[in-house]
Specification:
Length: about 400
């Protein structure tokens, strides 16, 4: 397959057999198509709604607007992209036709109902909570014929990540339902760390592989001890999520994570990647994760809230990495040349500028902060509009034969 390196942990000695052809509409033939498109639409729509609520242009949702915004960007937008990736990767790993057709349609419908439920949160409030929480268990069930295979034990770690996401989401709903007051904050951070863990795993598999495939002979260093510590450090942060962020233990773990991920990044990086936008966007996204860890260790010690660190993770790390991976993986899996179009390269720039403004805005005065926040949100939306303009036809059309 053209994209096997993008979504497999290693190059197999014997290639997996090609899956049977899907004869229905190509949009429902593999998970990356609907979920990458839904995720990009959510990136624009959810951010647009948040800005409209924040600046008083529309009425807020029925739940706390800040909680809604944070929840939807993690458990709505980011989880949609995770669904698209893992549903597609499972086909590459096993050689069995990935989830498609009606099961894929059902999963997408549950995701969409969850977004409506979170905005309206109608009584009885337990019902929208259950709708939103149903996505990850359904995803896990649909993936079991693939990841449940003995040969896929290495990839069953994704079930642990799903469990972390589900636990974080359940904590948010427990707070909204009044069952566990104050749990939403920790639940949201747990969700962020779960997404970061997924990106750390996927990034370790694809970023050096992509660079090596394009830059033959480049001195890319993948050091096993750094790889192991990169996962352990994020898992350690998730383990101390219930402790106050200004405590010495969370700050120490965060600073250690910053050093480890900076070392990982430095081992992967080679100067020729700067000639290929579809590569350097991934390095910039991963670099934002290291910035987030550093800010998480430094800001609480200075008496500052961790908002800048949170948005270094979410807008920078998650947003930029997702943007880069979506643009790369969608091209490979549709048989198109793996080159970033000028429109997409402009989106890369807008995404990183949005991250700079959102993270840096936290250090500005109140008057400038609101302007920075608005501009960052608009840049984020414009970036994903550019992605949609370029990739909607690609995701809807059959695989290219060229």
């Amino acid at each position: 397959m053209a994209e096997s390196a993008a979504t497999s942990p290693r190059t197999p000695a014997t290639p997996a057999p090609a899956p049977k052809e899907w004869t229905g509409h190509p949009f429902w033939g593999l998970g990356f198509r609907p979920f990458f498109l839904l995720g990009a639409l959510a990136a624009v729509g959810l951010m647009g709604l948040w800005l409209s609520v924040l600046f008083g242009w529309i009425a807020p949702p029925r739940i706390d607007p800040v909680t809604w915004h944070a929840h939807e960007m993690v458990f709505g937008f980011a989880v949609a992209i995770v669904c698209g990736f893992i549903l597609t990767a499972s086909q590459n790993w096993t050689g069995v036709r990935g989830v498609h057709g009606r099961p894929l349609q059902a999963l997408a419908a549950v995701w969409l109902l969850g977004r409506v439920a979170m905005w309206t949160y109608p009584p009885p409030r337990l019902l929208p909570a259950l709708i939103d929480l149903a996505l990850l268990p359904l995803l896990a069930v649909l993936l079991w014929p693939y990841l449940g295979q003995r040969a896929q034990r290495r990839n069953q770690v994704f079930y642990g990540y799903f469990a972390l996401l589900l636990a974080g989401n359940a904590m948010v709903h427990a707070d909204l339902l009044g069952w566990w007051p104050g749990a939403a904050r920790n639940g949201l951070w747990l969700g962020v760390y779960a997404i970061v863990l997924i990106l750390v795993l996927v990034g370790g598999r694809v970023i050096p592989a992509f660079s090596g495939n394009v830059l033959s002979g480049a001195p890319i260093r993948v050091r096993p001890w750094v790889e192991r510590l990169s996962h352990v450090s994020v898992a350690a942060l998730a383990a101390v999520v219930f402790l106050p962020p200004e405590g010495w233990l969370p700050r120490t773990v965060a600073l250690a994570a910053a050093a480890i991920h900076a070392a990982r990044w430095a081992g992967w990086f080679v100067w020729p990647v700067l000639r290929r936008p579809i590569l350097w966007i991934l390095f910039l996204g991963y670099g934002w994760l290291a910035v987030g860890f550093a800010l998480l260790g430094i800001l609480p010690a200075l008496g500052q809230p961790p908002s800048a660190a949170l948005h270094a993770f979410t807008v920078g790390g998650v947003g930029v990495l997702i943007y880069g991976m979506v643009t790369r993986i969608a091209l490979g899996h549709t048989g198109r040349p793996i080159e970033a179009a000028p429109l997409v390269v402009a989106g890369y720039g807008l995404m990183n500028l949005a991250a700079v403004l959102r993270v840096g805005g936290a250090f500005l005065g109140s008057a400038l902060y609101s302007h920075a926040l608005l501009l960052a949100g608009l840049l984020w939306c414009f970036a994903f509009v550019l992605l949609l303009l370029r990739y909607t036809p690609i995701l809807l059309k059959p695989r290219s034969v060229h």
